[in-house]
Amino acid sequence: MNQSRVLRPRDRSANPPQIAPAYKSTILRGPKQPLLAIPETAGDLVGPRFGADAVAGLGADLTRNAAVNGAPLGERVVVAGRLVDEFGRPVRDSLVEIWQANAAGRYVDRADRHDAPLDPNFLGAGRCLTDSDGCYSFLTIRPGAYPWRNHDNGWRPAHIHFSVFGPCFATRLTTQMYFPGDPLLDLDPIFNAVPENARGRLVARFALELARPEIALGFAFDLVLRGRDATPVENRP
Prior knowledge:
CATH architecture: Sandwich
Number of helices: 2
Number of domains: 1
CATH superfamily: Aromatic compound dioxygenase
Largest sheet: 5 strands, mixed
């Protein structure tokens, strides 16, 4: 056996804690008792399988997949990268989903009461499958910052939520991607709940090679599933 291909233990210390006092809602929803291990069964690790039919049409183009009477407002950006394992090998045919606020910092969600306009041509959600090289790509609108009531005059930095599915629901991982140079990062309790040495893995890289001339700038964001460079994920025990 090639020892370099033996899976290393997951670095759980890179993930945010279940209860982070500065992120106040975790105090209410984080577990207060030790977690119980539930043995996996064969049924937990199979299906449903996401195929091309799950991402037909304009799923990865958020500038067009909800258009009603024109283009959405805001700065267009390409967000693209690779989904890889701890050895840099591509993870193929995995469903990648994103959701986000619009350019004014508002979600299409009844619970979002932010006093900012909704965009009738922007849903803020998209999906695609990784290709044979583990690559994904979205064309979207750069989200705006928005206020949240965690603390006085608190604002969330611009971010995009990511969800990655393996072969079944039990293998779903979620995380957030941030934009480089955002001054709100230093003030954000969610971002800062991630250990300092791992925070950079959540910040996209400006990538001119991904830009579409006269259309959109590009940002690269790779997702690493395991190992010392693993992308920090949410809600992990």
